[in-house]
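User: Hand in any protein.

Assistant:
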Amino acid sequence: MTSLTAFTVLVCLVALERLAELVVSKRNAAWSFERGGVETGRSHYPVMVVLHSGFLVAMLVEAWVRRPEVPGWLAWSMLALVVLAQGLRWWCIRTLGHQWNTRVIVVPGLTPVRKGPYRLLDHPNYVAVVVEGAALPMVHAAWITALGFTVLNAALLYVRINVENAAIGGLQVGEPGA
């Protein structure tokens, strides 16, 4: 198996993981709505879906078109970061339980979770997103995708974190720039 083929398999596995997240998210959204959950931040959600879907496609296109030489130390160190990011992501999902979602849905009366990785950071899931966004494409030296996603994701996270903080704080505030 070539490194390019192995990279393609890795990206496909990450895509399958994302589909598993969406299944969990849909189930958790139903749980939240049944308990009076309120969704905010709808206008940025389609942008997030396009960015994250495009990210998976872009790194494959870049790797197959550019066909860069990939030093083993780069591939293996970036793969280690990807695995650590996935571990953090699923730690976050398990810690939040029914409250985890890809959307911003807050159930009135529930308090913010302050255990697991949330003892240390307000938004540890986004640490996983940032690390994976840089590391996954770099497993096959797709630096253009890594750089592009990092810049676009920083702008998206600025909006997303403000929306989440407002929602969690119970503020009746619109999205920045909306």
Q: What stands out?
A: The radius of gyration is 17 Å. The CA atoms of residues 21 and 90 lie 9 Å apart. The mean pLDDT is 94.
